[in-house]
Predict the structure.
Amino acid sequence: MGGSLTKPAILIAVIYLILKFVVPNIPGSAPLPSSLIFLYLMLTTAGIVIFATMSGESKDAFWGPIQRFLTGENIGALQAARYAVLILFPLLVGWQTYGSTAVSDQPPAENRTIHPAPPGEYTGLSNPVAKTPENIMQGKGFYAAFCSPCHGGNFDGKGPAARGFNPPPANFRRSDNHRDVAGKLLCSGASRRAASGLPIEGMPWKSAMPRWEVELPDEWIWKIIMGEYDGAHQSPRTWE
């Protein structure tokens, strides 16, 4: 079974590794959202299927092992793997369906709060990183690497990738975008909102904003926010 499917499997794995670990390290790029990575993998898979079925011979070579695996015809030691797939796949689909339809105590989407209050742990939060020229410059460097593709090198929300998003990336030069949600910045002056995304009452927030807390060190995030304020010529709001 493995012969005709090994290369497609390796290709998909290589594409995933490139998108996950190589693309974010390219100068001027940024980590890709998981939804975008999944889309690229689906496009890769579709391309593989189209290429593999361009002729009758290649179609038989591609689908033959899959069909034999599903029917159990002459697969030998893979019989146990076949049973595992046939059992686990329906269970996985059932679990996913249940998770998306089960009754929840979370507020319905139509009760969305446009500017939800920051979580309690953010109350009185301020930037622990010293506001020095060196830290501001380093923050702008991190911003250029991770944020500017969407939010723009001029902090105006007009990065080269901005046209691909709806709603568009925040324009940090607008003072109203330095409230809670619109710019994902807390009014304390530096923010973990950019890292954590929006709270549940703000759902559905329909944004490709990555959860940077799983990608970047905490100190980098604070420096990026500091660089954003300085570059956008805005002042952080203070707690009342």
Remarks:
- Residues 179-204 have pLDDT under 50 and may be disordered.
